[in-house]
Design a protein that fits this description.
Shape: flat
Number of strands: 49
Low-confidence stretches: 1-26, 91-99
Structural class: alpha/beta
Mean pLDDT: 91
Oligomer: single chain
Largest sheet: 16 strands, parallel, barrel
């Protein structure tokens, strides 16, 4: 009805307000008779009361939350203060312990002289006097902080000594001897009863080769036990060893770097080892101790690097670990070489010269002339003399070596096998396992692996890439080549000569320039389950997948696969061979599948009748089965 009121107002004009006066007095009522002004006033009071109550409630909650937050903050502050006090107290205890148990050579207790570490001042006496505490008090722990410490004579370490150095701490040689030695020259220790329980952790040993061109070693250790050397760099040794370990047991060498080596001008120290593991004899360790033949045993070398330093006139170490001499009835033993990297070694990375119980696992050999060589002394040489100086005339080979899970990557300009296992005539190296290694990028004239005068040698699960041969076997007994995977070989996968009990089985080869498997004068051999994908690629129709020749005898050739490629035969046996049996082979060749002269053997089966009689079963030229009693 609002529109009618508007029309009435327009008609009434100024009289409208007289007809319907609008005020907030008692003239306007609600439906219950309450004046509208009173009702509005009551509503406003009610709203104001609610707002006040809500505000009071919110203020109370805010006050409560503020108090709780304040309490929480105070509690946290109290805990922080408490923990800070505990940490401060603990740091104080640690500091007191360090001050009481360690000697900082720059800030030693009186009356020890302080070292300067500036590379100019002579710090020899400061360090040596700190080391001497172990001799007088029974033990010492020394801290050599960052700096360059000039030393003018060999430092002597005594039993129960710990030397801790910063990574950039340098011990700089200014004399013509080695840097550290665990006993004075001429001291008479025996067995493992010299100065042991030694820890050297951190630092750099620098022989200062460019200024002091004298032969030296880094650290000489003998007649001791319980040695730990870790996080240490030894560089630029001249004709000696980084670590000369002779007659020591229970040794751990880890996370170290052995970089830089200088040979003599005449080249006569081309074989020197960074870590020599030997024995206490006059020839091996003349510096001190009785020459009682105490042998090095229980040594672990892990997570170390052997390579070049870049110093002018130096190379990488010729040999990373091993020995180059022997004594009758003495074998360094129980040596573990694990997770190391050997780079650019110009001789062999590891040389085992008459060792027992050696485990070489998970190392990387990169561009080393040779990776691992096992040697045996020749009879009647200096290395078959006993401890008393008597020539025995008898050789003694090493035994029980495991080479497993390593990578042999490149061989520089090498002309030797990457893994070489050697005895001498009449004395075979025994019990060697070469397992699950990778050989690649090799430039070898004969083979990646070489076995000569050895027995009980097993190659299993290895991978060979791009080599002349995977393996060359000579003059050996009980050799197994099993489950190996070969890529391209420019000659044969396996070349075996003048050996007995040779088993070649379950191997795969992608391509060979000549035969896949070559037996020459082998007695008691098995060739079984091999797959030779392609062969005779050097010259078509001149080589066979499997070749047995030169008076080989008692050879079984079973279950092999040789597809037709460039090969002359799948299997070829020469007329000088005897007792060769070929059976169940899937082979082909350009000239023929199988060539076995009748006097040499046959391709067929051996059947046994119910009466126990053996028969040879072959298929003749007419395709008929022939049975011949054997």
């Amino acid at each position: 009805m609002a529109h009618k009121n508007i029309q009435m107002k327009k008609r009434a004009g100024s009289q409208w307000d007289n007809l319907y006066p609008i005020t907030l007095d008692s003239n306007v009522f609600d439906t219950k008779g309450m004046p509208l002004s009173q009702k509005l006033a009551n509503t406003a009071d009610s709203l104001n009361a609610k707002i006040d109550n809500t505000a009071d409630s919110l203020n109370a909650k805010i006050d409560k939350n503020h108090q709780e937050l304040t309490n929480t903050v105070n509690s946290l502050n109290a805990k922080v203060n408490e923990n800070h006090q505990k940490v401060t107290t603990q740091l104080g205890h640690i500091e007191n312990k360090v001050n009481s148990e360690w000697i900082n050579v720059k800030y030693p207790p009186a009356p020890l002289p302080p070292a300067i570490g500036d590379g100019v001042a002579d710090d020899t006496e400061a360090i040596q006097q700190a080391l001497n505490i172990a001799k007088d008090a029974g033990q010492v722990s020394i801290f050599i902080p960052s700096g360059i410490y000039k030393v003018t004579k060999k430092l002597i370490i005594y039993a129960n000594t710990t030397i801790l150095m910063r990574p950039d701490t340098i011990i700089l040689r200014h004399h013509n001897a080695s840097l550290f030695q665990n006993g004075p020259d001429g001291a008479e220790y025996s067995g493992y009863n010299g100065n042991g329980n030694i820890i050297i952790d951190g630092g750099i040993l620098d022989p200062n080769l460019l200024n002091y061109d004298y032969e030296c070693s880094g650290i000489n250790l003998s007649h001791a036990e319980n040695i730990i050397i870790r996080n240490l760099t030894i560089k630029d040794i001249y004709a000696g060893h980084a670590l000369d370990i002779a007659g020591v047991r229970n040794v751990l060498i880890e996370n170290c770097k052995f970089i830089g080596y200088k040979n003599r001008a005449d080249g006569s120290r081309y074989y020197a080892e960074a870590i020599q593991t030997g024995f206490a004899t006059r020839g091996d360790f003349p510096a001190f101790g009785l020459h009682d033949g105490t042998v090095t045993t229980n040594v672990t070398v892990r997570n170390c690097y052997f390579g070049p330093s870049g110093t002018p006139g130096t190379t990488a170490w010729p040999c990373g670990i091993g020995h180059h001499g022997a004594v009758h009835d003495i074998w360094p033993n129980n040596i573990h070489i694990e997770n190391n990297t050997f780079e650019n070694c110009p001789f062999r990375a590891i040389r085992l010269y008459k060792f027992k119980d050696v485990y070489i696992r998970d190392n990387v050999f990169r561009n080393c002339i040779g990776g691992v060589i096992i040697n045996t002394p020749s009879p009647g040489t200096a290395d078959t003399v006993d401890l008393n100086g008597r020539q025995t005339g008898v050789s003694q080979p090493g035994e029980n070596v495991i080479i497993e899970g390593n990578l042999f990557d490149g061989n520089g300009d090498g002309n030797v096998a990457v893994v070489s296992i050697n005895g001498v005539e009449g004395y075979k190296t025994r019990s060697v396992k070469v397992l699950n290694n990778v050989f690649r990028n090799l430039n070898v004239p004969d083979a990646a692996a070489y076995v000569n005068f050895a027995e009980e040698v097993e190659f299993n699960g290895n991978k060979f890439f791009d080599s002349t041969r995977a393996i060359w076997i000579l003059n050996s007994t009980n050799i197994s080549f099993d489950k190996n995977d070969c890529d391209k070989m420019t000659r044969e996968m396996i070349f075996a000569q003048t050996s007995n009990n040779v088993v070649v089985k379950n191997n795969k080869v992608k391509e060979t320039g000549r035969s896949g498997i070559y037996f020459d004068k082998i007695v008691d051999g098995v060739i079984a389950g091999n797959f030779i994908e392609k062969c005779s690629t050097e010259e078509s129709n001149t080589r066979s997948g499997i070749f047995v020749g030169n008076s080989s005898s008692k050879i079984k050739i079973l279950n092999n696969i040789v597809p037709l490629s460039s090969n002359m035969y799948g299997i070829q046996v020469t007329t000088t061979c005897t007792e060769v049996i070929s059976s169940n082979n899937d082979v082909s060749g350009i000239t023929g599948a199988v060539s076995i002269p009748s006097q040499s053997g046959f391709d067929g089966l051996i059947l046994v009748g119910l009466n126990g009689v053996k028969y040879k079963a072959v298929v003749n030229a007419e395709g008929q089965l022939e049975l011949t009693e054997l």
